[in-house]
Design a protein that fits this description.
- With 548 residues, the chain is of the alpha/beta class.
- It has 2 domains: 256 residues, Alpha-Beta Barrel (TIM Barrel), CATH 3.20.20; 151 residues, Trefoil (Acidic Fibroblast Growth Factor, subunit A) (Trefoil).
- Helix content is 28%, strand content 23%.
- The chain is built from 17 helices and 23 strands.
- It has an 8-stranded parallel barrel with strand order 3-4-5-6-7-8-9-10, surrounded by 6 helices. Strands 16-15-11-23 form a 4-stranded antiparallel sheet, with no helix packed on it. Strands 19-20-21-22 form a 4-stranded antiparallel sheet, with no helix packed on it.
- Helix 9 runs parallel beside helix 11 and helix 14 runs parallel beside helix 15.
């Protein structure tokens, strides 16, 4: 059986059906075994997403197993969008003597429309894939006419019903690739060689003619951070727009390899911001997070690796929430066993040969007829989408730990020589909110939003000396200086918040424990509990209330 990105060549699948290895009922579209992902609350993923942000996952319509995919139920129950795949060589146009076959794509579009799901079409021009088509690769002439026929057929098949199209996919050269032109386009693709560099322009114009209502974007990988490829990509899409090409935005695939370390989030944020500042819509189109490389199918990720994966999914969701130019957060498969990276279908370098298992999705398992279970990464997505960047937009607040509610207010302590006159110290503690306690302490905190999305938290009692500052594993109050140790991010988690330090190589969370107030590394972030009072969860959660 031949698979590419999870798709099965239809003829092979049909033969398997006749042999009884795949049921004909299943191939006709029998319902998938349900896969339910109960949330920590009654909210599903789409309810947590901000207005204007579509959340979804991929559906491979040319794979006859797609209706049995256990992740389909999660898409129906939790999401607002899906990616519908269609590739020229893999089911879309196997026979040049016949017209392009759009049925696999249109089946998914029809299914999505019945469920009020927005459709992201992937993709109209994919040179890497097209080169795998024997007949297209063997053409001596006529590449432009064939490509135009494919683009117009596919984009027009459900015109007016597709939200956004990846018009061209993976056309930018990687750094160091000698086959590159002045704009960064890869020059050794068939399309470039036989049509010229303006094949991209033409593809956008053909797509716009076939479906004038769809958003049209250029989609690529490896350009999420500030780097040579993203520099060239930004300059190129600006050039396209200046030439009158109907391009609406840019798709960032976001295959985030978090093996050993998290991505460079400040770099990703700064890169997204410059594309937004240039006036482009941004789409996260193919998010997955490989966390281990192994050729042993029985290996499993460690709890620490799963925790890193959760953090990366959460931060990607937070990025999509905070950056208003981001229109979509789309996953490239929901379950490991359906992923193109588990095991890898192609050689991705010496460290990742064919057959490498990477566990890159939010769900374990996923084989047809077998169970799949949510990982901590699934809850990370929920938490990241729940981020409310405006939860503390200035003003004075009281912070109450939900761990010890009877003695719980974050407090700046005072000292006195005579018991009558008090002055502030650098000590942070907890206290009850009583008239007596307020005479020798302060529970009022001013929250000052910064331009990078962080906040500085300053105690209202002598604020010029009272900025909440991370000092190793502890916290103190020091004069505000804008340092990294004084920058925090407030993350909403259900009805409470988590206050995360942005200082240091590892993230830390403001924690209320038996030893007082400190900053603990976020080792408890992988803990999922339906009981909000569970110690591992509650120590890191706070309630923000406006101060009197």
């Amino acid at each position: 059986m031949v698979r590419v990105h999870g798709r099965i060549i239809p003829l092979v699948a049909a033969l398997l059906g006749l042999l009884g290895l795949v049921s004909l009922d299943a191939m006709r579209g029998a319902d998938a075994q349900p896969l339910h992902a109960a949330d920590l609350t009654d909210e599903v993923l789409r309810d947590r997403a901000r207005p204007g942000l579509a959340v979804g996952a991929v559906v491979h319509g040319y794979d006859p197993e797609w209706r049995m995919d256990p992740g389909r139920t999660v898409i129906e129950d939790e999401m607002t969008a899906l990616t519908a795949t269609a590739y020229l060589p893999w089911g879309g146009w196997p026979d040049p003597a016949a017209a392009p076959d759009t049925s696999g794509f249109t089946d998914v579009v029809d299914w999505a429309r019945e469920r009020n799901l927005a459709v992201h079409g992937h993709t109209l021009v994919y040179p890497r894939a097209n080169a795998a088509s024997p007949w297209f690769a063997d053409l001596e002439t006529g590449h432009e006419a064939r490509l135009e026929q494919w683009v117009r057929s596919l984009a027009g098949a459900r015109a007016g019903e597709v939200w956004v199209w990846d018009v061209v996919n993976e056309v930018m050269a990687d750094p160091g690739d000698p086959a590159v032109d002045g704009w960064g386009l890869k020059t050794d693709w068939l399309e470039y060689e036989h049509i010229g560099s303006d094949y991209v322009d033409r593809a956008f114009r053909w797509a716009a003619d076939a479906d004038p209502n769809a958003k049209l974007i250029l989609n690529d990988y490896g350009a999420e951070e500030l780097n040579e490829k993203s520099d060239r990509l930004l300059a190129y899409v600006i050039e396209l727009r200046d030439r009158g090409v109907p391009i609406d935005g840019v798709g960032f695939q976001m295959h985030l390899w978090s093996i050993g370390a998290e991505p460079d989030w400040p770099s990703i944020r700064a890169n997204f911001q410059r594309f937004a500042d240039a006036g482009f819509e941004l789409y996260i189109t193919e998010l997955d997070v490989p966390i281990v490389r192994t050729t042993n199918a029985t290996d499993r990720p460690t709890a620490a690796q799963m925790s890193v994966q959760r953090s990366v999914f959460e931060e990607a969701a937070r990025l999509a929430t905070e950056q208003s130019a981001v229109q979509s957060l789309l996953l490239w498969d929901l379950t490991d066993d359906r992923s193109w990276l588990h095991p890898t279908r192609t050689d991705l370098g010496p460290e990742t040969p064919v057959g490498t298992f990477t566990f890159p999705t939010p769900f374990t398992g996923g084989r047809i007829g077998a169970p799949a279970e949510p990982k901590p990464a699934w809850w990370g997505l929920h938490e990241g989408l729940s981020t409310d960047a405006g939860v503390a937009g200035g003003g004075s607040w009281e912070l109450t730990s939900i761990h010890r509610p009877r003695n719980s207010l974050l407090t700046r302590r005072g000292v006195s020589d005579d018991g009558a006159t008090w002055w502030p110290t650098e000590v942070i503690d907890r206290s009850r909110s009583t008239v007596e306690s307020r005479s020798w302490s302060s529970t009022k905190w001013m929250i000052d939003p910064q331009t990078d999305g962080s906040v500085i938290i300053v105690n209202a009692w002598e604020p010029e000396t009272g900025a909440l500052t991370r000092v190793g594993g502890g916290v103190e109050l020091r004069p505000p200086d804008g340092s990294a140790a004084q920058r925090w991010r407030i993350e909403r988690a259900d009805r409470s918040v988590r206050i995360v330090s942005l200082d240091g190589p590892e993230r830390g969370v403001l924690t209320s424990g038996s030893g007082g107030i400190g900053v603990r590394l976020d080792v408890d972030r992988g803990v999922v509990a339906t009981d909000p009072g569970t110690s591992a969860v509650s120590r890191q959660r706070w309630i923000l209330s406006p101060a009197d």
